[in-house]
């Protein structure tokens, strides 16, 4: 599917290159028998007469159809002209997060062949903070489990995500686990939306204050000796240093900052540590805050402190907006990372790519 980041797969029935119907692939790990209304019916654009069939080049005040060779010549000539006149960093490249990983790889490679790291994708405006927060804490910038884990978790927490509208198939899995298996559902959002109405408990913080309640709940769990010591000893570095950093985040501070009552935060903490597996999913209600990276870090730290990684029905789930935001970043279309999230500031990494690409 080319819409959101759930990753649904479909069988497409056609006749004479016209789409007759679309149905879910039952063996797809993301959606199985489910689809949203966009995935089921939103395919009129495929056969639209407004689709481009040839490149367009501006000539005067109009766009004119040209052959590919002419279009590519126009692009290359202007790239070289700008580079010669103003330097490589006068050029910039934006990869599409609705394209393939391979296209992202080629876009960033083109940018770097032209001598610039001015390459990015739409995650800079949406999900890059989640990627940053996860890399800080667990060294991996994507989901830590599968869509099915959200059905198997003893408790699902949704933070800053209107899941029922933005990631409908994921919402259906969460609702199914909640209704059929009694999994707990807690929703934290500035808006009272459909998932809030379904939840066992809804918390409505002031805008931009999620970091405060996340850190306060984490501190409360540690203060009351409810953290997962065995998991922390095996998998978590610098725990004592981290715990000291939580000192300002008391429940009283969180209540004053967020507007969420102290007793509700205590209830959330006990629900979390008493659950058999916790998944936390979040989206742009978190990542588009000015402290989105730190808030995403706090989400992952809470999961680490409670031992909710590395097993079924647990983990972090940043819900991506476009269908290949994750893959576009994986492919290296970022100014600070090569493909595979390898740092451009690392001399050995740069030398490796220079050799491979003949630069």
TrEMBL record:
Keyword Metal-binding: yes
GO cellular component term, pick one: membrane
One of the GO biological process terms: respiratory electron transport chain
Keyword Transferase among UniProt keywords: no
Cofactor names: [4Fe-4S] cluster; Mo-bis(molybdopterin guanine dinucleotide)
Any single Pfam family the record assigns to this protein: Molybdopterin
Database matches in PROSITE patterns: 4FE4S_MOW_BIS_MGD
Molecular-function GO terms, alphabetical: 4 iron, 4 sulfur cluster binding; metal ion binding; NADH dehydrogenase activity
Domain (4Fe-4S Mo/W bis-MGD-type) ranges: 1-50
SMART domains: Molybdop_Fe4S4
Alphabetical list of InterPro entries matching this protein: Mopterin_OxRdtase (IPR006656), Mopterin_OxRdtase_4Fe-4S_dom (IPR006963), Prok_molybdopt-oxidoreductase (IPR050123)
Keywords carried by this UniProt record: 4Fe-4S, Iron, Iron-sulfur, Metal-binding, Molybdenum, Oxidoreductase
Annotated family: In the C-terminal section; belongs to the prokaryotic molybdopterin-containing oxidoreductase family.
Protein's name according to its UniProt entry: Oxidoreductase
Protein's organism: Staphylococcus nepalensis
């Amino acid at each position: 599917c080319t819409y959101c980041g759930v990753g649904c797969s479909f069988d497409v029935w056609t006749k004479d290159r016209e789409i007759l119907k679309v149905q879910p692939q039952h063996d797809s790990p993301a959606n199985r028998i489910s689809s949203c209304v966009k995935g089921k019916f939103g395919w009129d654009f495929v056969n639209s007469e407004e689709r481009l069939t040839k490149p367009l080049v501006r000539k005067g005040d109009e766009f004119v159809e040209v052959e590919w060779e002419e279009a590519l010549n126009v692009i290359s000539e202007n790239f070289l002209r700008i580079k010669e006149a103003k330097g490589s960093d006068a050029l910039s490249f934006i990869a599409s997060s609705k394209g393939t990983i391979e296209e992202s790889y080629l876009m960033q490679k083109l940018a770097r062949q032209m001598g610039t790291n001015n390459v990015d994708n739409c995650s800079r405006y949406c999900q890059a903070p989640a990627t940053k927060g996860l890399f800080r804490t667990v060294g991996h910038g994507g989901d830590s489990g599968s869509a099915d884990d959200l059905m198997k978790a003893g408790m699902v927490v949704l933070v800053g995500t209107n899941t029922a509208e933005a990631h409908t198939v994921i919402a259906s899995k969460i609702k199914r686990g909640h209704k059929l298996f009694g999994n707990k559902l807690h929703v934290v959002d500035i808006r009272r939306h459909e998932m809030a109405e379904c939840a066992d408990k809804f918390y409505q913080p002031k805008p931009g204050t999620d970091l405060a309640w996340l850190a306060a709940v984490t501190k409360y769990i540690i203060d009351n000796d409810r953290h997962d010591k065995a998991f922390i000893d095996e998998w978590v570095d610098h725990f004592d240093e981290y715990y000291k950093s939580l000192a300002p985040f008391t429940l009283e501070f969180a209540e004053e900052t967020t507007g969420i009552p102290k007793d509700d935060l205590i209830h959330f903490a006990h629900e979390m540590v008493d659950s058999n597996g916790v998944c936390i999913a979040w989206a742009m209600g978190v990542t588009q805050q000015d402290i989105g990276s730190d808030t995403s870090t706090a989400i992952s730290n809470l999961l680490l402190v409670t031992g909710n990684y590395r097993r079924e029905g647990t983990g972090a789930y940043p819900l991506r907006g476009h269908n290949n935001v994750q893959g576009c970043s994986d492919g290296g279309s970022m100014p600070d990372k090569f493909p595979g999230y390898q740092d451009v500031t690392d001399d050995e990494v740069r030398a490796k790519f220079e050799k491979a690409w003949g630069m």
